[in-house]
Design goal:
alpha+beta; six-stranded antiparallel sheet; 8 helices; 325 residues; 9 strands
C-alpha cells in the first residue's frame, strides 16, 4: 500500500484491511440486480445511467443501525464515476422537480428550469447519459460515494450528522470487468455501435437490449463473467467525501483489488425471477458498521432508499423477507 498510495506512515499504521468483508478469505453467494437510472421505463437506445446492486449473503458482524436485513451487505454501484448533484439541497430540489413533472406534463418545464439554473450538474448529467455499454456484464461500475473501512473506538453514530467525524480510512468501491480465465486481465470497455442504436430507434418497437443480452448471455452453458472487486483510498482532503461530483484521481490513488465477483450460467427470465428481483431491497445503509456509508449524499440515500423500497412493496402487496441463498 505504501507503494501504491500516497498515504502517510501514520495513516498506514492506523489502517486495518482485515475488517468486515475483508476480514478473512471467504466466498460469499450474492444476488445482483441491474437497473437503469431513469424514473420510468425507457427504451435502451435512449441515454441513461446503468447500475449494478450487489447483495452479499451470509455476512456476520456488527450491523449498521439502519440496516433492514440481518446478514447481508449491500454495495450499490453505477457505470459513472460520479453522482451529478453536490448537496442534499440540490438533491431534494431536483427530484422534487422530477416528481412534479410526473404529475402534470406542463411541470416538465420545472426540470428544464432546474437544469438551466444548475449548468455544472446539467453537464455532468449529459456526460452520464453518453455511455451505451455493449453489455452490462462487461461494464465497469463505481460507487461514486464513499464508505469507511473501520471505525475509531470512540465513534458515536448519534453525532455523525452534527459534528465532523474522523475515520481511520475512507474508501470508494469499483467493479472492473476482467477475463474469466487467469491471469484475469482487465477487459476494454465496449459500446453498442451507433448504427445499431439508430436501427433500434427507427424500428418503432420496444428496445430491451440489456435485459435480452443478460438472458441470452447467461443461458449459455459455459457462461462466466468476472469483475475485480476494488477499493480506492482517500489520500488527500481534495478527494471530497461530501461532494460526489468530484472524481478521485486514480493516478493519485489507484484502485486495489480485494476480491472477485463471478457470475456463471443461469436462467434469469422466469416470472418468479422477475418478481424476486423486483422485490429485492437495497440501501447504502444496509450492512456492517465497519463499512459505514459516509458523506452528505450517502446519509440522504440511506434514508430515501428504504422509503422507496417500502412504497414499492406496498404497491405490489409484498411482505418483505430477507433473501438467502
Amino acid at each position: 500500500m505504501s507503494k501504491r498510495t500516497s498515504l502517510t506512515e501514520a495513516q498506514l499504521q492506523a489502517i486495518s484491511l482485515k475488517q468486515g468483508l475483508f476480514a478473512k478469505p471467504k466466498q460469499y453467494p450474492v444476488w445482483l440486480r441491474f437497473a437503469n437510472g431513469a424514473f420510468s421505463v425507457k427504451n435502451d437506445y435512449e441515454g441513461d445511467t446503468r447500475s449494478m446492486s450487489v447483495k452479499v449473503i451470509g455476512v456476520e458482524g456488527e450491523r449498521l443501525p439502519q440496516s433492514h436485513e440481518l446478514k447481508t451487505q449491500d454495495i450499490i454501484v453505477h457505470n459513472t464515476e460520479f453522482f451529478f448533484v453536490r448537496t442534499i439541497k440540490d438533491f431534494h430540489s431536483f427530484f422534487m422537480a422530477v416528481y412534479r413533472a410526473g404529475l402534470f406534463p406542463l411541470f416538465k418545464l420545472l426540470v428544464l428550469f432546474w437544469l438551466k439554473l444548475h449548468p455544472y450538474e446539467f453537464t455532468l448529467l449529459k456526460t452520464s447519459f453518453k455511455r451505451f455499454p455493449k453489455s452490462l456484464l462487461t461494464e465497469r461500475y463505481w460507487s461514486a460515494s464513499a464508505y469507511s473501512l473501520g471505525l475509531k473506538s470512540d465513534f458515536d453514530p448519534s453525532q455523525s450528522g452534527r459534528v465532523p467525524v474522523e475515520y481511520p480510512v475512507v474508501i470508494k468501491y469499483a467493479f472492473t470487468p476482467v477475463s474469466s480465465q487467469p491471469p484475469h486481465q482487465q477487459l476494454p470497455l465496449e459500446s453498442r455501435p451507433e448504427s445499431e442504436l439508430q436501427r433500434a430507434k427507427a424500428s418503432g418497437s420496444e428496445d430491451n437490449y440489456y435485459r435480452e443480452d443478460i438472458i441470452q448471455a447467461l443461458a449459455k452453458p459455459d457462461a462466466e463473467y468476472c469483475w475485480d472487486f476494488q477499493i480506492q483510498f482517500q489520500t488527500s482532503p481534495e478527494m471530497s467525501i461530501d461532494d460526489t461530483t468530484i472524481v478521485w484521481s486514480e493516478e493519485e490513488s489507484p484502485f486495489i483489488t480485494v476480491g472477485r465477483l463471478t457470475v456463471k450460467h443461469q436462467k434469469v427470465n422466469s416470472a418468479k425471477d422477475n418478481d424476486f428481483g423486483e422485490n429485492l431491497s437495497f440501501s447504502p445503509g444496509n450492512g456492517l458498521a465497519v463499512h459505514r456509508p459516509v458523506g452528505a449524499i450517502n446519509r440522504l440515500r440511506s434514508i430515501v432508499y428504504p422509503i422507496v423500497a417500502n412504497d414499492r412493496h406496498q404497491k405490489r402487496g409484498v411482505k418483505y423477507q430477507e433473501p438467502t441463498v
